[in-house]
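Bug #2210: token dump truncated for 3-oxoacyl-[acyl-carrier-protein] reductase?
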Amino acid sequence: MSRSVLVTGGNRGIGRAIAEAFKAAGDQVAITYRSGEPPEGFLAVQCDVTDAAAVDAAFAEIEEKQGPVEVLVANAGITKDTLVLRMSDDEWSSVIDTNLTGSFRVAKRAAKGMLRLRRGRIVFISSVVGMLGSAGQVNYAASKSGLVGMARSLARELGSRSITANVVAPGFVETEMTEVLPEEKKAEYKAQIPLGRYATSDEVASTVVWLASDGAAYVTGAVIPVDGGLGMGH
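Reproduced locally. Full output below:
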């Protein structure tokens, strides 16, 4: 059966790979994007997840065109990296508002429809940084760690209606963001990863698709690392 899927921040990188994977599985896929040109082949809705009214309008459009959201992937996120003593209140609050509060907004809105359907899948895209911490990323790490507590609370709150909430925590992934790193920095990061390489976006996407499948119907409140062993033990 073709389901109504929403991937926030689905216009590039990991988000786009996730959207493509659901589309390949035969689902109807909507994506939100904040700027730029969205990829073709999806119901693309411009939406800033820091704006509650924009989130509500985006869901209304998606519901009208492809039905209530049955699978939500909360992926939209930003970074504003700097050392803590240099970090401004805005650099802190904008990252928290996008990555953590934005995920809360879309999960809350999706849950309304899922509760009526008595089924649903919510997947939050976190990061190994949320488990390990990272110098210069106090704001980002806090936002990504917060998704774990949110998912586990939602798992308890919504589980009786057959709604699961899980977290995928990627490590270093081959994206436009990592391509620009200096070669010595790439080598340094790879030396810390037991598998000795970065993940592909498709490897992250396949994990997300599995969590939304019938095969993962009894998995909820879980944190699934896709990090080559970088964060094991957390």
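Output looks complete on our side. DSSP finds eight helices and seven strands in the chain. Marking as cannot-reproduce; reopen if the truncation happens again.
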